[in-house]
Amino acid sequence: xLSRIKKRMETGVLVAAIVIxxxxxxxxxxGVACYFALLESxxxxxxxxxxxxxxxxxxxxxxxxxxxADGSGKRSEARGKPPRDDEFxxxxxxxxxxxxxxxxxxxxDKAAMATLGxxxxxxxxxxxxxxxxxxxVRYSESETVRRSRxxxxx
Length: 154
Known about the structure:
The chain is mostly helical. It is 85% helix and 0% strand. The chain has 6 helices and no strands. It has helices spanning 2-39, 44-78, 87-95, 98-106, 108-124, 126-148. Helix 1 (2-39) packs antiparallel against helix 2 (44-78) and helix 4 (98-106) packs across helix 5. The longest helix is centred in the N-terminal third of the chain and has 38 residues, at 2-39. It is elongated.
């Protein structure tokens, strides 16, 4: 399950890393082309103004569509439908340490920075990655034993 999620995330990041710069270049060339097309019938300053205004209208339309799309999710929650949990998020909630989960809720900025630091360290250092994996395996084994004991609460 985790490998499938990891693969999906890697694919998404790779696609975003390629599509975003290419899209920015395409829109930049589209703006330049619009400017040159308007330059034939308008003075240079007016052609630049109209091109910028068209860009602002496009940005406003994109933001409006994003707001409408985001608003549809809020309406479904208001109707009493529970929000659809992501499979990975549900898995993490079930296996999270209660003390750690509480700290993350109380300190989201620190948790994000700690996660970023650990991710960078694990990405660049094989020994650090092994240490983290060993810690995770030990924690997982102890948590399995704790939860399997009779009377152990979740």
